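Letters spell out the chain; backbone shape is given numerically. Take this protein:
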Amino acid sequence: MNRDQIRTAFFDLIKPYVRIPDPVISESSLLVDDLKVNSTRFVDIILETEDRFSISIGDEDMDRFDRVGDAIDYICTKTVAA
């Protein structure tokens, strides 16, 4: 997968967890502050990301999922290294 494909897949993955109507998701969006993802849904996003991209995300790496673009960068790094 290239970065654009990962970006599209990640946007699709997080949409069901966003708690605002008609969200405008961008790479600069903050999952918790901008998109109103609560802690339970955040964990669900992490778990689904692991499944969808066949990667493992350690507890110490979860901070990289604050901003959507940073999460995409992290996924790219892990999928290229895999």
The two ends are 12 Å apart (CA to CA).
